[in-house]
Amino acid sequence: MSAFKAYDFRGVFEKDFTLEDIYRIGFFLPKLLNVNKVLVGRDMRTSSPAIFESLTRGITDAGVDVYDMGLTTTPMVYYFTAKHGFDASVMITASHNPKEHNGLKVSTTNALPVGYDTGLGKLEQMIKETPHPVENKGKVIAHDVKAEYLEFQRQFSYDISNLKIAMDCSNGMSSILVKDLFGNAPVYMYDDLDGTFPHHEANPLEPQNVKDLQALVLKEKADIGVIYDGDADRVMFVDEKGTFIPPDLMIAVLGMYFINEKGVQGKVIQDIRTSKSVTEYINKLGREVYIWRVGRAYAALKLREIDGAFGGEFAGHYYFRDFYYSDSAMIASQVILHVVSEMKKKGISVSQLIAQIATYANSGEVNFKIEKKKEAMEAMKEHFMGAEKATEFMDFDGYRIEFPDWWFNVRPSNTEPYLRLLMEAKSQELLDAKMAEAKKVLEQFM
Questions:
Q1: Which of 232, 233, 290, 240 is closest to 266 using CA atoms?
Q2: What is the pTM of this model?
Q3: Measured in whole angstroms, how far is the alpha carbon of residue 198 from the centre of its chain?
Q4: For 145-192, how does the pLDDT look when each residue is reduced to its tens digit (9 = 90+)?
Q5: Residues marked as catalytic
Q6: Residue 316 Rama label (left phi>0; alpha psi -120 to 50; beta)
Q7: Distances from the Cα of 262 to the Cαs of 93, 157, 257, 320, 406, in angstroms?
Q8: Contact, 78 vs 299, CB < 8 A?
């Protein structure tokens, strides 16, 4: 089934999966994870109520109780999975995908992600069997946890009243929390729940989806703009000039808090696409960086394995030891706004702060439509490593190959005929030259 992905279950509703598929997943999930209760939350998409009904009917037909969190953010499900001792949880969401999409994010004990390699693949095989409902069906139990969650989140709340903040909730799930945490001071936009996403899609990585926030920042003369994705597990930022800030650079800003201010020990995790500016900045703060694979299914497990302090990704996920090694956009946004507030007291704007961190020219992720992705990757490796001695070579999530003054990551898309290339160099001139060279290598495969 095309909806089973590496990290989760996701696709176009009634095209890539049906309600019958959802029922079967609900029925066989308790057997897969060997549980007698499942925590379930859902986002505001128009298909989420029907998916919830089918999923919970499957779970209860298997004789297992459902604890219903109602409308919730994805990180809330992670938190209460671990906090309340659930060995299975499901968040009904398609995160940042368009309105026609939906899906399931499955977690197990301690909010560990269940990806294709750690259970979803087996579940895909199990749902081909015929469900046989039990006589003693499970119950659906309301599980209201918002007050408890806000109490936890407020440990990261600070007086940031000196800031003018523009905030775009993308008509997504962040709307249920932001006013409780930030009050009425920010200038909010698109803060009502609407699963049709009438203003823009809930994916802040796409430049067109950030334009309204950028305009609001300039109109209101805000110090910073904040934008969340649909299920509020990702957050991104715009500086006072309306310039979008690459999300990986905010790992360094988090370091100012967790390392400089709080003295937290442990390695900092980043994904293979993250700027070397971040690595070098964290090293200057006295901490080691661990580079790992893209996606929560890998990052959360690795952060737990190494007992890392915190971490982040190029796509705007930020992971925290105190959040059961899971990602939380609310912790990230509160901490980053606190750092920005303290910097403003010193006369340092957001753009000036980021300029202190970003010491490399960066291409961003560039997509090349290529069918023979493996062959193209090998050609890139052979061309550049044949011409210059590499200082680092990493071969997970494609290749990350580093040289004294520049580096690149080339990785295949798991779902599309695209090869993704990201480059950085110590100067724009060197970056332009290396990118032109790379395009010549790749064009023979296009």
A1: 290
A2: 0.95
A3: 22
A4: 999 999 999 999 999 999 999 999 999 999 999 999 999 989 999 999
A5: 95
A6: left
A7: 34, 14, 6, 13, 32
A8: no
